[in-house]
Amino acid sequence: MGTNLGAASERSRPALNSEQDSFEALFKAEYNRVAGIANRVLGDTQEAEDVAQEVFIDFHRLHSAKAQYAAAWLYRASAHTALNRVRGRRRREKREHAAAHDEAGQALDPQHVAEANDERRRLRAALARLPQKPAAVLVLRSSGLSYAEVAEAVGVSTGQIGTLLRRAESALRKEVNLESPE
Amino acid sequence: MSHLSEGALRRMFDDPNAVTGTEREHFASCTECQDRYAKSSADATEAARLLAVPAPKFDADAAYKRVTEAPTQGPRFGFRMPILRQSARRPIAVLAFAVVLAVIATASANVAQIFAPTQVKPVPVSVADLQSLPDLSTYGTFAWSKEPQPQIGVTAADAEQVAGFSAPKPGSLPSTVSKNITYAVVPQAVATFTFSAAKAQQAAAAQGKTLPAMPAGMDGSTLTLTVGPALIEIFGDLKQGSASDVSQLALPELIVAESKAPVVTSTGVSAAELEDYLLKQPGITPQLATDIKALGDPTHTLPIPVPVGYATSTNVTVQGVQGVALGDNTGAGAAVVWIKGNVYFVGGSLKQSEIVSIANGLT
C-alpha cells in the first residue's frame, strides 16, 4: 500500500499521450457505426453526427479509450441518446414539415415525398413509445450489429436477443399502425 | 419436442443455421411453428423496411477534428454527477455539500506556507451551516493551472503509473461485494485562488452586507492548492452506464481510494490570518467557527465535515492511526477516512464494521 513508484508527473505524460492516441483510434474506428446507429433513429445525418460527437465526448470525459467495453458503451449510448431525442420533441417535426414543403416544390412526386415523411414521423413516434431496451435492441440490430454485439451493448445474454427483437418488431408494427391515417 | 420459442424463430429468420438439428426437424413438420415463423418474419421484414435509411456518408477524420478543435469549456471538476434514483439523492447531496465544506474548511484552517495534513478530525456541520456558507468565488478569482483529468476504466497498471504509487489491495471482502473492479485515476491537479478585496466588497455590497477588512497583504495574494494524484477502485459493474441512461447506474458496492495529501501554499497571508478572516465572514455560524478553531494544529489536520442529522462519526483506529468513520443513520452506507502518508478512503453500501475491517485489511 502506498509504495512510491517515482515522480508521477514524469511518468504520467506517456500514459496520457497514449490515452489520447487510443481515443483518436477508437473515434476513427467507431465513428461511422456510432453515427449510423443515431441516423437509423433520427433519419437525419446532421443530427446523427451531433449525437455521435456528444457520445464520444461524454465517453472521453469519463472512460479510458482502452476500456474493453468502449465500443459496446458507445453503441448503447448512441441508440439511447438518439431515442431520447425523438421522445417528446417538436422541433424536428417543424423542420421536417418545412423540408417536406421544399421537397414537394422540387420533387417530381410531391405526394410520394409527403407520404415518406409521414411514415418517418410515425416510425419515430412509435420508437419513442417503445420501452428503452427493446427499442435499443431493434435499432442496434438494424444498424448491422451481430447478436453478440447487441447483447454486449445492452447488457443481456445473446440468447435473449431473439426474444427481445421479436417483441420489439411486433410492438413497432402495432405502434406504427396505430399512428396510421387509415 | 416442444414448439420453438419466439426467440429461436426470430433468430432463424436471420440465420437458418442458428437452430439445432432437432429443432429444424420439428419445424419442418409443425404447422403451428411455421405459422408463428411467418408472422415473426413479416414483422421483421416490415421493421427492416421502416428502419431502412439511405447509406449515410460520414467523415470520421473531419468529425474528429471538429471535436478536438472545439473550444474547451470553462474550468470543471471533471466528474459529472449521475442522476440517481430518488432514494439515493439525499445522501449524495449531503456528500456533495460535505466535499464543498471540506475544501472551504481546509482552506480556512490549514493554509500555511505548506499545508501537509497528517491526521483527520470530524467537524459537525448542520444543514443551516451549509446553506449559509459564503460563496468563496466572490472573494477573488479561481483558476485551474492544471485541471483534474479523471480517467475511468484504465488498467490497474496504467492507474498505478499515473498515480505514482501502487493500488491498495483489499484482503477478504464480504460475499456481497463484486470482484469486478473498475480503476480510475486522477493525475495531480493544481488550482490557484487570488484574493481581491474590491471584488469581495462589491459582491457583499450587492447583497447588502458589509465584510470585515482583509488583513494586510491578503489583497492580491494567491493560494495554490495541489491535489492528487488519486487512484480509485470501484467494485461493482459500471458497464451499463451511458450518456443518456445514467438513471440506471447503481451506487457502487465499495470504493477504495488513495490520494496524495493536498498541499496549500500562500504567497502573502498566514494560516492564522486567513482562518481569522474567513471565520468572521457573514454566514459562518459561531458554532462552526468554534468547532473549526477547536481542531487545533490546523497545519496538520484535515477536517472531515459530518452533516448533523444525516451521518454520525466515530473515531476509529485504522492501520494503526486515527481515522474518522462515517455511518449513515439510515444504515445505507458507511465510510472511513484516514491519513498515513497519503489520504485513504474506503466507503460503500456496507455496515460500518465491515468498512473498517476492509480498511484494516488493505495492503
Primary descriptors:
heterodimer, A: about 180 residues, mainly alpha, 8 helices, about 80% helix, globular, disordered N terminus, B: about 375 residues, alpha+beta, 2 domains, eight-stranded antiparallel sheet, four-stranded antiparallel sheet, 11 helices, 14 strands
Helix percentage of chain A: over 70%
Main sheet summary of chain A: none
Based on secondary structure, the structural category of chain A is mainly alpha
Q: What multimeric state do the chains show?
A: heterodimer
Q: How many β strands of chain B by DSSP?
A: 14
Largest sheet of chain B: 8 strands, antiparallel
Distance linking N and C termini of chain B: 56 Å
Q: Kindly give the count of domains of chain A.
A: 1
End-to-end Cα distance of chain A, whole Å, is 71 Å
Write down how many β-strands of chain A occur, each being a DSSP E stretch of 2 or more residues: 0
Biggest β-sheet: strands ordered side by side in the sheet of chain B? 3-4-7-8-14-13-12-11
* Helix count, DSSP H or I runs of 4 or more residues of chain B: 11
Order of helices and strands of chain A: HHHHHHHH
| Broad structural category of chain B | alpha+beta
Relative helix content of chain B: 25-40%
**Estimated radius of gyration of chain A:** 20 Å
Q: How would you sum up this structure, described in words?
A:
The complex is a heterodimer of chains A (182) and B (363). With 182 residues, chain A is mainly alpha-helical. Chain A has one domain. Chain A contains 8 helices and no strands. The radius of gyration of chain A is 20 Å and the shape is globular. Chain A starts with 7 loop residues before the first helix and ends with a helix. Residues 2-16 of chain A have low confidence and may be disordered. Residues 72-101, 103-114 and 240-250 of chain B have low confidence and may be disordered. Chain B is elongated and about 95 Å long. Chain B has 363 residues and is α+β, with helices and mostly antiparallel strands. The termini of chain B are far apart. In chain B, helix 1 (6-14) packs across helix 3. Chain B has helices at 6-14, 21-29, 31-51, 60-69, 86-110, 127-132, 156-163, 197-206, 271-279, 286-293, 352-361; strands spanning 119-125, 140-146, 151-154, 181-186, 189-195, 222-227, 230-235, 254-259, 263-266, 301-307, 311-318, 321-328, 334-340, 342-348. Chain B has 2 domains: 6-51, no CATH class; 86-135 and 149-186 and 228-361, no CATH class. Chains A and B meet through helix 1, helix 2, helix 3, helix 6 and helix 8 of A and helix 1, helix 3, helix 4, strand 3 and helix 7 of B.
